[in-house]
Amino acid sequence: MSKLRTSRIRLAGAAATAVLATLSLGACSNGSGLKDEGASAKAQPSTSTSQSSGTPGPDTGSDSSSNSSNSAGSSGNKASTNGSGTAARTPTSKAPSSSAKPVTCEGSNTKTVAAPLSRPLNHMLLTVTNTGSKTCYLYGYPAVRFGEAQSVPPVIEDSQPQAVVTLQPGESGYASVNLSAADGSGTNGHTVKSLSVYFQGRSGNGSVGTGAQPSLPAKGVYVDDSLKVTYWQQEMEDAIVW
To answer: Where does the secretion signal sit in this chain (predicted)?
Structure first.
């Protein structure tokens, strides 16, 4: 009986050894083994975490560099724009000519027109227009000379404006001339066919620059000793009320 029991124990041990050997061979035959499968299982969550966090894998490295370059380029482009999507322009350094230092209005930078008026009676309107590129000041009153007169007529003092007449390029100033007495009380009346207009400077002493020779009607105009002028006015209405 003891020999039989010993044989059974030996057979059971041999069988267990065979089973273990079979399992070992099976594990080696698949090239991975139980330990490798466990390592692979542990590596899987790492891959999943990388994907969920948005970290690019090896194949997307070039795209990441490209995106960085695009972002840098976009920032560079924004620096050269004015915020409205258009390229900023360098402002010109040349100031408008009209903003230059003002000058005195005179014959070389203005045009003078003389027009007889039906109302008020025996009046003429002088219109001076700035034809230059700079603002000009129309000082005082016009020094007019009709025909061969040796002196200029006096000014109506009450017509003096509160400020010097200032003409931007293209703007006009005005003065009126009382040619003769409306009631016929004037003396030495005669007809003249030419007119010269001279301009005063800031000091008001004498004329400056060149004069103007506006045309008169072909038949001329009648003047007498009551001849007088107004100061230059900014508005025409202020000139013809005298």
So the answer is: 1-29
Full DSSP string of 26-67:
HHHHTTSHHHHHHHHHHHHHHHHHHHHTT---GGGHHHHHHH
Q: Which residue ranges of the chain lie beneath pLDDT 50?
A: 1-9, 11-87, 90-98
Q: Which residue has the tokens 């390029």?
A: 169
Tokens of 22: 């079979």
Question: Packing angle between helix 33-52 and helix 2-29, nearest 10 degrees?
Answer: 40
Alpha-carbon separation of residue 197 from 36, 57, 152 (angstroms): 115, 91, 10
Are 190 and 227 in contact by the 8 Å Cβ rule? The answer is no
- Say what the pTM is: 0.60
The Cα 213–Cα 194 span in angstroms is 8
